[in-house]
Design a protein that fits this description.
Elements lengths: L2 E6 L6 E4 L2 E4 L3 H9 L4 H5 L3 E6 L11 H13 L6 E5 L5 H11 L6 E5 L12 H12 L6 E6 L2 E4 L4 E2 L8 E2 L7 E4 L2 E4 L25 E5 L6 H7 L6 E6 L9 H12 L3 E6 L12 H8 L3 E2 L5 H13 L4 H7 L6
Parallel strand pairs: 1-4, 1-5, 5-6, 6-7, 13-14, 14-15, 15-16
Antiparallel strand pairs: 2-3, 7-8, 8-11, 9-10, 11-12
Helix pairs in contact: 3-4, 4-9
Pfam families: Asparaginase, Asparaginase_C
Enzyme class: hydrolase
EC number: 3.5.1.1
């Protein structure tokens, strides 16, 4: 039977009601085991053995920062030889950002890393927490699953394609541009396809920790009427990377001054990645003249990447102290 390490980092799943709303709770392992004991005997017996590493300072996901992503990755790597799979329990608001970052940091781990959480506290009436725990444990024990994935609401999603899709629903995450990896069917976790990251050589290069110097990366969503003057204020000389969310398949305002600003930033070493504001579909930057202009300005085609994936990819590469040219070459997830 596989051994799993469950890392409780914080989030709603472990909270208790308090006088001012939900507050961080503790003793998560004991509480989780109590909830799992309520499962039918056959399903309980199917669960793998697990240990629990509980953060003493639970992270509210709205306060999560890149250094937390690095900390989680280093905790996984510290225990990589003692466990067959890992579960990261996390608050839902920025869960997709953490899952995407872990995808890059743990690409060579060769074991399943399942990120999960809940929309409601573990002991709440009709909570989705116990079901998500069972789901995550089931997939973390799969020998035919490698890489980072999100287990939530009866579904398994790729870590670099998942997005929070609903503020309250139990099925709160979706992958707009990728098929489901698996689902909970007939009281067991079923894989639809075997997903293995391209790099699976046993080598992992996590972000530095604890001495984290977070690269200056920004996210800019275009709006009708954006001007070069406003863009120049947002794209300061200290910005090392920019996720630029353009319209449709690769359109921006037909303004030479905006293109010139993007070109100047790119030439000084700023990595600018274009993705679409549309949740579904991919960029086709050669379809329109403005798309060609973006490419000529040195903007990287982010294809169908989510904002979370593109942003965390930039943070990851820049944290490795690589040259802008090497970061550019390695940006595509296929080179991860």
């Amino acid at each position: 039977m596989n051994r799993i390490l469950m890392i409780y980092t914080g989030g709603t799943i472990g909270m208790y009601p308090g006088p001012r709303g939900l507050e961080p709770g503790h003793d998560f392992e004991q509480r989780a085991r109590q909830q799992l004991q309520r499962l039918p005997s056959k399903r309980l017996e199917a669960l793998p053995d697990f240990d629990c590493l509980e953060y003493n300072d639970p992270i509210d996901s709205s306060n999560a920062r890149p250094e937390h992503w690095a900390r989680i990755a280093h905790d996984v790597l510290e225990h990589r030889h003692s466990y067959d799979g890992f579960i990261i329990l996390h608050g839902t608001d920025t869960l997709a950002w953490t899952a995407a970052s872990l995808t890059w940091q743990l690409s060579g781990l060769g074991k399943p890393v399942i990120v999960s959480g809940a929309q409601h506290p573990l002991e709440a009436e009709q909570s989705d927490g116990p079901a998500n725990l069972e789901l995550a444990l089931g997939f973390a024990a799969r020998n035919d699953l490698v890489g980072v994935a999100v287990a939530f609401g009866g579904q398994l999603l790729r870590g670099d394609t998942a997005r929070k899709w609903d503020t309250h629903a139990h099925r709160g995450f979706a992958s707009p541009n990728a098929a489901l990896l698996g689902e909970w069917l007939q009281d067991s976790p079923q894989l639809h396809e075997v997903f293995s990251p391209s790099a699976n050589d046993g080598e992992c290069t996590p972000m530095p920790y604890p001495a984290v110097v977070t690269p200056h990366v920004a996210r800019l969503v275009l709006w009708p009427g954006i001007s070069a003057e406003i863009l120049s204020r947002l794209l300061g000389d200290d910005i090392q990377g920019l996720v630029l969310e353009v319209w449709g398949s690769g359109n921006i305002p037909e303004d030479p001054a905006i293109i010139n600003l993007l070109r100047q930033a790119s030439e000084r070493g700023c990595l600018i990645v274009a993705i679409s504001q549309c949740p579904h579909g991919t960029l086709q930057m050669t379809n329109y003249a403005t798309g060609h202009a973006l490419l000529s300005a040195g903007v990287i085609n982010g294809a169908d990447m989510t904002p979370e994936a593109a942003f965390t990819r930039l943070i990851y590469l820049l944290s490795q102290q690589l040259s802008p040219e090497k970061c550019r070459r390695q940006f595509s997830p296929s080179s991860a």
